[in-house]
Amino acid sequence: MAQQDKITVENINHPGQSRSVDRARYDAMKKAYLKVLPGKSPGLTLAEISVRLSRELSQELYPDGARAGWWAKTVQLDLEAKGVIRREKTSPIRLFRA
Length: 98
Known about the structure:
Elements: E1 6-10, E2 18-22, H1 23-36, E3 44-45, H2 46-56, H3 68-81, E4 85-87, E5 94-97
Antiparallel strand pairs: 1-2, 3-5, 4-5
InterPro entries: DUF6958
Region (Disordered): 1-20
Pfam families: DUF6958 (PF22278)
């Protein structure tokens, strides 16, 4: 796989660390994430996000939701690290677009 087919992601829980992942899957999940998340607090719980994401994902990239959970978490942590989405300090956590 060529380097342009990869994207570097961060993790808010591990500052300074990054890894390369498949760009097409990342971009598809990011687009879905930003579509389902509200633009203001209080946001959605991870369970609510998961249900909504399942309706937005490409069957080609995520057949029957395969590996969607891993990708959702990866994109969530990357977008939090980059300040694109924010986490409410509640239990359970709730996310919204920054």
